[in-house]
């Protein structure tokens, strides 16, 4: 399927119909384990002499189809799925890093990721320098001898900053560290970070890829482009004490990180995706290209409409000519800028809470990327644990309202916001 384009891969990649009983839809293999032919077969699977399924914490045929499909739509050589986007990020970093290592990260990250990097990983001896990603040179300036990764979101949630991925990738290449890009908000239907120099792409599948707000999931897609033998990652070149003395890079080459995520990451941390959730997420992935087009069209029209309302103080959407990220959006997101819009009402903090309380179609909840429209006031909810300065660097002001614009009729969405404004 690798020669096919995105919309075709989203529907077909990874599903060998004949090998799956002629099934047109991807089947759910709801099983924890797999019967070995005999003890020698089992021994060969454990020692990687043969590849096959052992236990669903490591892999599963339904999950495998999702993995191959995600690798195809992102342009990677392999992918591994997890129980949530957070499980993907945590396992991805812990599989790569050890105490004493350092990360350079954009300061505008999803609040949960920011907390992982700023509070939890330091407890394990892994520290992060957060930089203003609008100047790519800040990444180079923050590099230390022990830096082992760059981490960014291609389209920050909720700052909606579009990053100059190619400029940051050039700095990660010079520093000889992997460039990790969370591409959740942009989705592979609008942006492929690997084409712009990312070595590792991460997704919360819970959002646009699943698309219907039914199932948590996460994924890591490996570009297969990073040189793990550059001397900075001995766990990839020395015999692994955790896996039969396996020398990952010598044995698995470009696929080293993908296998390490399965053999050590999933084995040791256990954040496996349930096959039923993999099936639900596959249903979403199949229609992602058409849905994201509608999300993007609705978001742009709503952002323009908000700009024209007297009550509205400011609007942020990378597709707007007024956005300071519009030039980068034209380069990196030419086919649409996804469905998140933020704005402030002239009534400030209190007005923001009233709007979030009074909308009828927009649901007040802590998620993005559902087909249905969603609303939240981050300052009092998702980002309440950050102090004012941290909120500001994450792009959150007291008056900010985040909309995840769904695919309902756009006139109904405008009317819903208008009636909420009238309640202030
Ligand atoms: C950009 C981004 N990355 C990662 C996550 C975490 O994903 P999950 O909620 O599936 O754990 C989120 C969740 O909101 C997110 O917005």
Automatic annotation (TrEMBL):
Cofactors: pyridoxal 5'-phosphate
Primary enzyme class: transferase
BP GO terms, sorted: cysteine biosynthetic process from serine; L-homocysteine biosynthetic process; transsulfuration
Keyword check for Transferase: yes
Post-translational modification N6-(pyridoxal phosphate)lysine, affected residues: 207
EC numbers for this chain: 2.5.1.48, 2.5.1.49
GO molecular function ontology, one term from the record: O-acetylhomoserine aminocarboxypropyltransferase activity
Alphabetic keyword roster: Pyridoxal phosphate, Transferase
Pfam families attached to this UniProt entry: Cys_Met_Meta_PP
Recorded superkingdom: Bacteria
GO cellular component: cytoplasm
Family per record: Belongs to the trans-sulfuration enzymes family.
Protein name per its UniProtKB record: O-acetylhomoserine sulfhydrylase
Natural source organism: Jejuia pallidilutea
Lineage: Bacteria, Pseudomonadati, Bacteroidota, Flavobacteriia, Flavobacteriales
């Amino acid at each position: 399927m690798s020669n096919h384009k995105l919309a075709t891969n989203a529907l077909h990649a990874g599903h060998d119909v004949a090998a799956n009983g002629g099934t047109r839809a991807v089947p759910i293999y709801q099983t924890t384990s797999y019967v070995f032919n005999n003890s020698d077969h089992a021994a060969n699977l454990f020692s990687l002499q043969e590849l096959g399924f052992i236990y669903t914490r490591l892999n599963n045929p339904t999950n495998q189809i999702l993995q191959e499909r995600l690798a195809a739509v992102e342009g990677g050589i392999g992918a591994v799925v997890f129980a949530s986007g957070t499980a993907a990020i945590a396992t991805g970093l812990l599989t790569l890093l050890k105490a004493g290592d350092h990360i350079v990260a954009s300061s505008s990250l999803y609040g949960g990721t920011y907390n992982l990097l700023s509070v939890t990983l330091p407890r394990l001896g892994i520290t992060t320098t957060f930089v203003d990603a609008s100047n790519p040179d800040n990444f180079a300036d923050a590099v230390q001898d022990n830096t082992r990764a760059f981490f960014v979101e291609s389209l920050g949630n909720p700052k909606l900053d579009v990053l100059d991925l190619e400029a940051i990738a050039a700095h990660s290449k010079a520093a000889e560290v992997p460039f990790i890009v969370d591409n959740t908000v942009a989705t592979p239907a609008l942006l492929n970070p690997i084409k712009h120099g990312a070595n590792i792409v991460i997704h919360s599948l819970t959002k646009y890829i699943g698309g219907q707000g039914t199932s948590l999931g996460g994924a890591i897609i490996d570009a297969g482009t990073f040189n793990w033998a550059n001397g900075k990652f001995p766990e990839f070149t020395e015999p692994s004490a955790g896996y039969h003395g396996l020398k990952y890079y010598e044995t698995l080459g470009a696929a080293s990180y993908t296998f390490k995520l399965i053999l050590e990451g999933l084995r040791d941390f256990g954040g496996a995706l349930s096959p039923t959730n993999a099936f639900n997420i596959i249903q979403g992935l199949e229609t992602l290209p058409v849905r994201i087009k509608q999300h993007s069209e609705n978001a742009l029209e709503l952002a323009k409409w908000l700009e024209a309302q007297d009550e509205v103080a400011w609007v942020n959407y990378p597709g707007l000519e007024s956005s300071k990220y519009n030039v980068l959006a034209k380069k990196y997101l030419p086919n649409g800028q996804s469905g998140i819009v933020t704005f402030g009402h002239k009534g400030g903090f209190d007005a923001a809470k009233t709007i979030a309380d009074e909308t009828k179609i927009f649901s007040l909840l802590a998620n993005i990327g559902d087909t249905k429209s969603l609303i939240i006031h981050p300052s009092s909810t998702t980002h309440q644990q950050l102090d004012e300065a941290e909120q500001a660097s994450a792009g959150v002001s007291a008056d900010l309202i985040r909309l995840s614009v769904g695919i309902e009729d756009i006139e109904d969405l405008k009317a819903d916001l208008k009636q909420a404004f009238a309640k202030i």
